[in-house]
């Protein structure tokens, strides 16, 4: 190799370009996205976000949490991360934020995105975060546990969870609820991913499940790059474009590093 060629190769490697002229693996933008749902719902709610991301060339995996315990949900999510090609943008909605906080320390995860989600610190759980709601905060219509699982009152589901979702779909979501294990709510995060990975947060300004002030506080604590949009707790269903845009922004930003 001539001295000139050697210098060009050295410079290319310095900026993450290999000898063939393509970006090296370390410099490739993250093109894999793993979506993690929260309590009372399943992964089908991500359909709108999924369709946008797939159209834009992302590889997308949707986790189907059993929502029986945090450990079980983290295990399922880690398997999805392992199956994803290359770097991963890990996204969690609601309780899914607890799952991604615990699972997001995986070396393949390059960023964590919270969508109207819990972003707990070490030793915190959903139970501890909702233990002392501020005066005047809306109270989610959670029914008493049955056999260790929780459900939302179907008659109040739309108003509290999905006020901006079309009525027929909100009704379907209410009738197709996934029982949420009390043990999952009590699962404590050990080492939150947001302390080690860059994070993004979407605040749903009309949320009646996790009060927007609480969302802002958690986002600020996590030093997350934050956007706010009008929307209910089901903003990932009602406004998939806003959610997908934040995910794509996270992917683009970490790809620059």
From TrEMBL:
Protein name: AB hydrolase-1 domain-containing protein
Source species: Mesorhizobium delmotii
Keywords carried by this UniProt record: Signal
Keyword Signal set for record: yes
Signal sequence, start to end: 1-19
Pfam family, one: Abhydrolase_6
Coiled coil residues, start to end: none
Residues in AB hydrolase-1 domain copies: 33-245
